[in-house]
Design a protein that fits this description.
The protein is α/β, with parallel strands linked by helices. About 45% of the residues lie in helices and about 15% in strands. The chain is built from six helices and five strands, in the order βαβαβαβαβαα. A five-stranded parallel β-sheet has the order 2-1-3-5-4, with helices on both faces. Bound molecules: D-ribose (RB5).
Length: about 140
């Protein structure tokens, strides 16, 4: 997995996004932060789309997106072709999102996840490979033809 991770959040996800940066640095990753840059109220699609564009274009392989519930920014990134955003609130869901769904954007609910759980979700997401096999055909069938 690429060592450059894209990051995006709204105001509700901003505090956890800043903490995620510290973990990424600790683990030897770099990051590209698409905002937001404060806890001032803002609209999650703006930042979700900026991150999703970078992953969709191939500029980045992987991203992490955070809003209050995770739902709004997850809906935003999943409007992009080739984006598989996975809303995760337990490490095992993050692990399965990689193993079974080949998720390329980890989405977390900043207002509904504690720091230790979020850290373990990020760890699993970044360290778990896609299993392929029967899961590949399922992923291939996701885009509306
Ligand atoms: C912001 O108040 C909140 O609506 C947003 O972070 C997110 O939870 C939306 O899905």
């Amino acid at each position: 997995m690429s060592k450059i991770i894209g990051l995006a959040s709204d105001h509700a996800g901003y505090p956890l996004k800043e903490t995620v940066k510290q973990w990424l640095t600790e683990w030897g990753y770099s990051y590209k932060d698409f905002g937001t840059n404060s806890t001032d109220s803002c609209n999650y699609p703006e930042f979700g789309h900026a991150l999703a564009n970078a992953v969709e274009s191939g500029e980045l392989e992987t991203g992490i997106a955070i809003c209050g519930t995770g739902n709004g920014i997850n809906m935003s990134v999943n409007h992009h072709a080739g984006i598989r955003g996975a809303l995760c609130w337990q490490p095992q869901i993050a692990e399965l999102a990689r193993q079974h769904n080949d998720a390329n954007i980890l989405v977390m609910p900043g207002r509904f996840i504690d720091e230790d759980t979020a850290r373990r979700c990020v760890e699993k997401f970044l360290s778990t490979p896609f299993e392929g096999g029967r899961h590949q055909a399922r992923i291939d069938a996701i885009p509306v033809k």
